[in-house]
Amino acid sequence: MQVNGEPMSRGQATTLAAFLEAADFVAARVVVERNGAIVPRAAYADTPVGDDDVLEILFFVGGG
Q1: 20 and 44 in contact (C-beta within 8 Å)?
Q2: Measured between alpha carbons, how far is 58 from 32 in angstroms, rounded to an integer?
Q3: Alpha helix positions (H), 1-64
Q4: Which of 8, 19, 32, 33 could make an SS bond with 13 (beta carbons 3.0 to 4.6 A apart)?
Q5: How much is the pTM?
């Protein structure tokens, strides 16, 4: 799988939610694009991930 332009193993994760947790991403603080489509946060637990997936993970950054 590719995450933010870099190769990354999905390990044993079969869903997006499991991958985010295993990779130490906080699901509430990211937006995920999978294969060119934004995944709604409510669908993370039901969204499968595979070795050929391309993910872009965007972080919310606060500031002023």
Answers
A1: yes
A2: 6
A3: 16-22
A4: 19
A5: 0.90
Length of the chain: 64
Contact (CB, 8 A) for 47 and 15: yes
Residue with tokens 């606060």: 62
User: What are the tokens at 27?
Assistant: 């699901």
Residue 63 bridge partners (DSSP): none
**Residue at token pair 């965007």:** 58
Residue 61's pLDDT band (boundaries 50, 70, 90)? confident
Q: Within 13 A of 33's CA, how many CA atoms are on the CB side?
A: 8
Tokens of 46: 């039901």
